[in-house]
Amino acid sequence: MWFRNLRVYRLQRKLDIDLAQLDEQLSRRPLARCGSFEMASRGWVFPRQEGAFVHAVNRQWLIALGVEQKLLPAAVVRQTAQERAALIESEQNRKVGRKEMRDIAERVTEELLPKAFSQRRTTWGWLDPLHGWLVVDAGSDARADEFMEMLVSTLDNITPRPLQTQVSSQTAMTGWLADSEAPAGFTIDSDLELRSASESQAAIRYVHHALAGPEIAGHIAAGKIATKLGMTWNDRISFVLTDKLHLKRLAFLDILKEQAESTDNAEERFDADFALMAGELAHLFDDLLVALGGELKTE
What we know:
This protein is of the alpha+beta class. It contains eight helices and twelve strands. It folds into three domains: 6-72 and 116-160, no CATH class; 74-114, no CATH class; 169-291, no CATH class. It has helices at 19-27, 74-92, 98-112, 141-154, 169-179, 214-221, 254-257, 266-291, and strands spanning 6-10, 40-45, 55-57, 60-71, 117-128, 133-137, 161-162, 186-196, 203-206, 224-233, 237-242, 247-252. Strand 10 and strand 11 (237-242) form a beta hairpin.
């Protein structure tokens, strides 16, 4: 159980919900199969054992949003609709207009949906009620928004908000590069994206490239700002920090994973991985907050 792409949110410090309440509320919105005429359905699924919508390890909670989606490619609908439109034009000796074409496409979709295959995917979420963190493992804004919309609509008393810091991540990253010095506990790796502050948003990307020296300094002096920067925390976790304060492409390094390889039992291994990940990320977040000037209080 190792998260890959982190969207970090703050929970209210005193979370007004316990494990049993959380499980009960999630159980009200389980994932159901797509209906014959539905493109997608969303709902909560069991993270591990059957019957439990929350998997708890050392007062850390793991939840999972399931999405079932019909596989009906737009190209298939378009081709079938065009074939029917061509038949109408041939038989009735007239041109099919835009509105009629849309109506044909809608009918084709309705006919094909019940026959379409479905696929399922899962988005994971980790709640740390002790430290007030909610972390979603999502590689895109759409997946994260989907998870958060479902969570807020399901739970009665939870108000997460995106993590905000006193110093923006792009300002901090640009400063670290300009000074050729990473914050305490971190090292700068070899991946970087710089963008122009002008309307053109011209971008320069470096992959596996040394970031010290006059070249990078020259781009920053010319007004470019860092929007993505590869970093490693305490030789334990590497990641790419973004200007939106997302942590992408997490890699839990060998020195950390070796600590979890104490059992061959799948269930015990899963719990050990989750507990280790939660503990390490909580410490990483603390150090990252210090590096970014502390948390911005919005209340």
